[in-house]
Amino acid sequence: MIRYRLLLTFLFILLNPDQGYSQQKASYKQAEILWDTWGIPHIYAKNEESLFYAYGWAQAQNHGDLVLKLYGQARGKGAEYWGEKYAESDRWVLLNDIFERAGEWNVKQKPAMRKNLDAFAKGINDYAKENPGKISEEVRAVLPVSAQDVIANVQRVTHFVFLAPSSKVAAALAAQGEKNGSNAWAVGPKKSASGNTLLLTNPHLPWTDLYTYFEAQLVAPGINAYGISRMGFPVLTMAFNDVAGYSQTVNTNDGQDFFELKEKDGGYLWDGKVTPFETKEKILKIKQPDGTLSEEKMVARRSIHGPVVSEKGGRTIAMKIAGLDQYGIFEQYLEMCKARDFEAFNAAVSKLQIPMYTLMFADNQGNIFNLFNGEVPMRPKGDWKFWSGIVPGDTSATLWTKTHPYKDLPKVLNPTTGWLQNTNEPPWTATWPIVNEPADFPSYIAPPLSMSFRTIGSVKMLMNAEKITLDDFIAMKLSTKMELADHILDDLIAAAGSSENVESKEAAKVLASWDRQTETTSKGAFLFDQFVRKWVGGAGKLGTLGTESTMFATPWIPSDPVNTPKGIADKDWAVKALAETALEVKQKYGVVDVPWGDVFRFRIGDVDVPGNGGSGFMGVFRTMTLTPTNDGKFAPSHGETYVAAIEFSKPLKAKALTSYGNASQPGSKHHSDQLPLLSQKKLRPVWFTRKEAEANLEEKTVFK
């Protein structure tokens, strides 16, 4: 009998070579993908391995070229595969040991997560193997990929693009800050018309490359999560289930510090003694136009702080980053997706495996929660301004070795206001009046209290709203109002109207009749937008338009947070800038009151529709960045990428939109199919149940 069973087993394997000698392959092929008519995968799996496998396959089907390009860069081999364009990125990856550390993180994963990551990579490889014509030839050199590639991509994007990008070296040397964008709201029963909580997820980032989001639903025992992940990530990074959900925004957590070293005798001074650098030679390969490879030798030096990241201008700068030993980011995100109440979510986020981002949570039990999440260094001295620049690195008096525990972080649970918000501001404005007073926290934990114009608009909408329905919630979210106009337009119109300049008078009439919105039909919006850019000294200086700017007659006052700043300090310059702007607009477009949507377009491929929304610096909550195009118009290269508005009712109600579609593979119709809805300011219904997905089915992928 035993011999008979062995013979049957041998014959089965012989006739079914793909089954192999283990049960692993069968275990991670127990899934199916229901692709809806928007190209969104609804993945149903019998176990987590199968879920991760199918999710890897789904990302390869919709974004295979992009995923493989990101994985190649995370190896530090972008230039080796695709040329000089990727050399600078590779240097940053090699300098920071990203791929090597990813291998260390992989070994440290719990067995179940290690299997999941292997399965995700296997899903990508299998898709590419079974669909060779659907993956571009130029990225096939990256195949096959492994769990180490998956981890390296997540680490590169999270820790070395968002938390510690190479650009921050120059910014710190110049004492400049940076801005990233997202909106998040949570509304509790006190403000909700139905008594159900409401949650808004709304990142706005570049519309390309590693910033791209992928929308999906993941269903397996213990999980039924719908949301988005960054490209090549094996877990959802913003998600909701039928009873709870969370969003995240880029926060002001400073988990990256720069230390200036004093070099001496081949080493650096440390507490009065010369300490040798740790050195490691690395080879950067760069593909040449003729296909050959050149080699660049890099000598990476490290101090006690971390790698030397700059040696310009006679200054030697080393960098220290928090959270590089926190390898549990995948497990934490998965637990956050699974959380069905505040207690479970709180238990997950208290592990602090995600090094940054403000987290916003809501559940169907009436809880709303805001967390200034991050690995925050426990610094021995100094305030925010001190640590935002270059810190002396020759003494242990400035060296931090620990990060703050969860209990130290600013957080708000169920405020009496009934609402929470974040627009990439410090944690002090999570709700208003303030719950977390800056004085109660270390002075280096976040920037001082202030509000951007986008924050003012966000706070104003939530403060003034009463008994918000889901439709109200969506309408508020889609607001295109230019908040800055409420603060300076009356002054500008009065000054320009009394001027003897013909252009300024004509412009004043246009602005007086403008609705202060950036709708496609708004006349005056483009004139105002272009005026503001000239007024502040050029489009490149928009980032200096803070509410604390001396350009306003009255500065921002915390006791009157939504009505200040107010007025224009130098009216003569403002009138001159308006006259020049009006003349330029008229010369270029024929009229001063050109409609916003005639000039600002949503464009992908052959789709070209009127745009709406505008600059976050000018206080537009529906944030879109105007980038010039070759035909004299503008299109967003950055801006609102994804919107999800959720009401935790029974049954769940949710609507969403991914601006640039859910696929980037060449020829996919799902790369631009949502642009018309974006132009019309409409969201799609979220098909959360299997019945809904099957009723809107485009295709099905079954793994056996």
From TrEMBL:
Keywords: Hydrolase, Signal, Zymogen. The keyword Metal-binding does not apply. SUPFAM superfamilies: N-terminal nucleophile aminohydrolases (Ntn hydrolases). It is an enzyme of class 3 (hydrolase). It holds the Pfam family Penicil_amidase. InterPro entries: Ntn_hydrolases_N (IPR029055), Pen/GL7ACA/AHL_acylase (IPR014395), Penicillin_amidase_A-knob (IPR043147), Penicillin_amidase_dom1 (IPR023343), Penicillin_amidase_N_B-knob (IPR043146), S45 (IPR002692). It comes from the Bacteria. CDD domains: Ntn_CA (cd01936). Its EC number is 3.5.1.97. GO terms for molecular function: hydrolase activity. Belongs to the peptidase S45 family. This is Acyl-homoserine-lactone acylase. It comes from Dyadobacter arcticus.
